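User: Show me sequence and structure for the first protein, then do the same for the second.

Assistant: Starting with the first protein.
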Amino acid sequence: MKRYLYDSIKKDLQKKMVILTGPRQVGKTWLAKALLDEFKSPQYLNFDNMADAKIINTQSWPVQSDLLIFDEIHKKPEWKKFIKGVFDTRAKNQAMLITGSARLDTFRQSGESLAGRYYPMRLNPLSVRELKDSVGPDEALALLNRLGGFPEPFLSGSDTEAARWRNQYYTDLIREDILEFGRLQEVRSMRLLLELLRSRVGSPVSYTSIAQDIQIAPNTVRRYVDILESLCIVFTVRPFHTNVARAILKEPKLYFYDSGFVQGGEGIQLENTCAVCLLKHAQYLQDITGEDIELNYIKTKDGKEVDFSLSRKGKATHLIEVKVSDDSPSASLVLFARKLPEANAIQLVQNLRHEQQKDSIAIISAGKWLAQLSA
């Protein structure tokens, strides 16, 4: 399967280096290796491999290499200083692709500057849009709800194989990645938090409530959630508000990159899958076209809520409610459609017999609409 960032990376490698980040096992290495065929003398080097690490440390790759791929390079001390030096002194027309886990994106934000030398790209799990050429949109959506969008469990097509993959995946994350951010004695608390969050997807995150449940301080919960977000295990969706400062102070909603990990039934798995597809759409437009687009949700003080909103330059363009089977317009969606008439009000329904327009609300097949996103 040709991943959705393939052509964009190929094009941008002609101008600057590309730094490709994303969750573990989302397909970054596979994508990087697929690009090798586009070059005459490419060189793939993984810092986890001892022989490759020696080549990297001594800079002894072939001079004529027209593509250098450095995988897991963030594990090298002062990696940004190293990459900056290689890029600034590279041979003419030598392309550079840097890939690694989500930690690479975290570490990229501090230390030696790579400003002006690279394009950042974020690889996300499979989506209805990315699968549209191989699977029908309704079937793709159902499979993503059940198996999640990570390539290995999805392509297995098996609930058993997906469960086996998931058990190992989260065990490794806790043992390796999370431990790098926290102390050994914190791992148990983070494991409890991760398990607790599985059943709180789609609801505003109350740090105080969670802190009481696992007997730690609210600020510690906040720090743990930040770590999980930095590692691309979860992502947060903040409330939409024209006053950005006020929006940041309100509680975010939380979703997992892996919809198959979510607990809570068909409805919440569907909402999580839609959240991943919308995040992927927004990040693709941010990374590839530079658009000022944001994914949010809307909620009033009296509890009226719309699942998602998309905005450009601070103005809402889409109001999106997600339902499994209900084709009656949500009362909250009707309310906000009146308050924000410039936005497209959409109710996405997974099991929908007939698409229809009810006043200002479009009742649309969830699979069909998600298949028309940008990524």
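Switching to the second protein now.
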Amino acid sequence: MDLSRPPREVLQQGLDRTVELTGSAAGVVYLAKDEQLLPVAGNSVKLEAIDALAFGEGLPGQVAEERRSRRLSDVPNEEALHLHLGFARVTPQEVVALPLLLQERLLGVMLLAATARYDDQALQDMDGLARQLALHFDYAQVLGQMERFSITDGLTGLFNRRYITERLEVEFSRAFRYGSELSLLIMDLDHFRQINERFGQAVGDLALAEVAKLIRRSIRDSDLCGRYGGEEFIVVLPHTNQEQAGVVAEKIREAVAGAEIGELAGEYLTISIGGACYPDSNALSLSELVQKTDEALAAAKSGGRNRSVIG
């Protein structure tokens, strides 16, 4: 199993392997969250047709509540989850639900169904496979968290400077190679040092985190944003020309200028934004594009702040 893959893909791989090894006809993995079981992986079933369950509800819910495996044989037709085998729908002969436990912590429930009785070996294997799946899923989550920590800024949740710079290099190389447009915005909160001096660093940190949220809400999912320095932010806009970049910049500026941050006691933040676009700015390299963006930011500041300038 490839534990470097996203956690839910690890669950899917583990479920598929368990179905194969135990001779099951179908299977579902539920994740436990807030006293509910959410279906997240399926084999030979349609996940969209499976409802979330409360703890104590149905066989999986009972297993979640009791934290022990349950086996249901000779499933009554009127209560059965019918299985689609490609050519017909059949009633499973046997269903087994197993808790996915890591020490005492419940991660979820795995439900397996067979069209014939499970043999003793398959039943013995299930417990071990459920323990392995819980362990592998938890490990994949830890790896994912470590990766996120390595590329994100702890205060704002945006990409950190190292990672956003690496992504900018990739995006510029792609734009240069294929002749596509790429815009870059660098922005700086106005007079932010005074905010820290008047209200304290803790309030300043809260303000930075709030501005980061405003920036994320102002851009597309395909755009990239990061914390570039203390109170500096950077936004990378693939497939965006100069005019479009100006619209985005103004959207961000207006969002920040209009935001009420309670900890600032009625005082409003403003932000200055500089931008440049490839190839509109005639930058022939990434360093030139960054330089032109910095120059535009300097022009926004010298022009009175709380404004955007796209060079």
